[in-house]
Write a structure and sequence with these properties.
Strand content of chain B: under 5%
Radius of gyration of chain A: 20 Å
Number of helices of chain A: 10
Number of strands of chain A: 13
Distance between the termini of chain B: 8 Å
Strand content of chain A: 15-25%
Domain Carrier (chain B): 5-80
Low-confidence stretches of chain A: none
Order of helices and strands of chain B: HHHH
Low-confidence stretches of chain B: none
Mean pLDDT of chain A: 94
Largest interface: A-B, 13 and 10 residues
Structural class of chain B: mainly alpha
Helix content of chain B: 55-70%
Subcellular location (chain B): Cytoplasm
Oligomer: heterodimer
Number of helices of chain B: 4
Shape of chain B: globular
Mean pLDDT of chain B: 91
Pfam families (chain B): PP-binding (PF00550)
Pathway (chain B): Lipid metabolism; fatty acid biosynthesis
Helix content of chain A: 25-40%
Order of helices and strands of chain A: EEHHEHEHEHEEEEHEHEHHHEE
Radius of gyration of chain B: 11 Å
Protein name (chain B): Acyl carrier protein
Chain lengths: 344, 80
């Protein structure tokens, strides 16, 4: 059997890191005062329950593709690479309402990424971490030199503005990162997973086919039909997001061989300021570690929230290039992904 | 096994730490939301702290039944 042909082995980079990060925030600002025209609530109630003062909502021109291209352009510029060297485009989103084709192909084409493989993933608020895990594997596995990871959402399209418990939470935006080869480890082990037993605690109210079937049945009978929206069981999500996710965050630190006091930033998914505050306590994070609090002005932008918050911390000087950051995303699925990364 | 007074005292300390309510205000007939201003998310924090302190499991489905401090004390005494 000595003549059995052998497949040539694939070799990739020894290590990977984030080379650049960029974000896009829609022009239209929605302050709490505007939310109060939809729901019976108060500015103080919204701020104490969520930490949100305002959020950005995309206009008609600010499509999922457009916001992604804008954010990616900044990430590519910071990385200082020719887009043609990007060998993979991963778009994490749950709010691109045209399912086929994947929005990633249009984005890759517009950015000049040639024939790079391009695909969408659905991992809700853990989407950026999932994308980072895939990108890290692609770079080290030799299937791409650079990979563009985008988290993008237009959650305003899936917001029920009459739902008191969620109308004030969601926002729109895009964040992008370029992952590529590195001489030293720049992305720690991605600790990720899912728990499908809790698939119903955050979800779209109903599938599109169900919604359309109802519409057909009503067919102009005057009854109000509702476009599917996102809803969640707040207390259940809060408990899981704080105490279960603190364990996952600790696992990511342990896997990277990093202690909390060595972090230059903690960048959790911007779900709710209360979750962030409680997670800091549960993690026993030292006060010296700067914490991302982008949610106050951006709302919860699901897959986009971590790269948007990362960009803000770097731009404001709260965190610096080369610092170690602990990132953790968690959301509908339930799904989660955490890792220690070197900031670009 | 903790006594009723010990559970009440422990719960009062937890509510004080999480919601800043003076411990003497945490009485059996007080409603968490209406009298003590413990909102739904703080209630989860109280529940998790109580689980740890009293070595008891309080499932999410049960939390909504714990309307007063007395409800919580009784639940802990029965299930710890």
């Amino acid at each position: 059997m000595s003549n059995t042909p052998q497949i040539r082995p694939v070799t990739g980079a020894q290590y990977s890191r984030i080379h650049g990060v960029g974000g896009y925030r829609p022009v239209r600002v929605i302050p709490n005062a505007e939310v109060l025209t939809w729901i019976e609530s108060s500015d103080e109630w919204i701020r104490t329950r969520s930490g949100i003062a305002e959020r950005r909502w995309a206009g008609p021109e600010e499509s999922v593709a457009e916001m992604s291209v804008q954010a990616a352009g900044k990430a590519i510029a910071q990385a200082g690479i020719d887009p043609a060297r990007i060998g993979g485009v991963i778009v994490a989103t749950v709010s691109h309402l045209k399912q086929t084709p994947a929005v990633a192909t249009e984005i890759a084409e517009r950015l000049g990424c040639g024939t790079a493989p391009a695909f969408d993933i659905s991992a809700a608020c853990a989407g950026f971490g999932y994308g980072l895990g895939l990108a890290d594997g692609m770079v080290r596995g030799g299937s791409a030199e650079y990979v563009l990871v985008i988290g993008v959402e237009r959650l305003s399209d899936l917001t029920d503005t009459s739902d008191r418990s969620t109308a004030f939470i969601f926002g729109d935006g895009a964040g992008a990162a370029i992952v590529g080869p590195s001489d030293t480890p720049g992305i720690g082990k991605v600790v990720w997973g899912s728990d499908g037993s809790q698939k119903d605690v955050i979800s779209q109210t109903e599938a599109w086919d169900t919604a359309f079937a109802k519409q057909d049945a009503i067919n102009g009978a005057g009854e109000e039909t509702r476009w599917p929206a996102l809803r969640m069981e707040g207390q259940t999500v809060f408990r899981w997001a704080v105490w279960e996710m603190a364990k996952v965050a600790q696992q990511a630190l342990d896997a990277a061989g990093i202690t909390a006091d060595q972090l230059g930033a903690f960048i959790p998914h911007q779900a709710n300021m209360r979750i962030t505050d409680a997670m800091i306590k549960a993690l026993k994070l030292p006060e010296s570690v700067p914490v991302a609090r982008d949610i106050a002005e951006t709302g919860n932008t699901s897959a986009a929230s971590i790269p948007l918050a990362m960009e803000r911390m770097l731009e404001s000087g709260e965190a610096r290039s080369g610092d170690l950051a602990l990132i953790i995303g968690f959301g509908a699925g339930l799904v989660y992904a955490a890792a220690v990364v070197t900031l670009p | 096994m903790a006594t009723k007074d010990e559970v009440l005292e422990g719960l009062a300390e937890i509510v004080n730490e999480i919601a800043g309510i003076p411990t003497e205000d945490v009485e059996l007939d007080k409603s968490f939301t209406d009298d003590l201003d413990v909102d739904s998310l703080s209630m989860v924090e109280v529940v998790v702290a109580a689980e740890e302190r009293f070595d008891v499991k309080i499932p999410d489905d049960e939390v909504k039944n714990l309307k007063t401090v007395g409800d919580a004390v009784n639940y802990i005494l029965t299930n710890a």
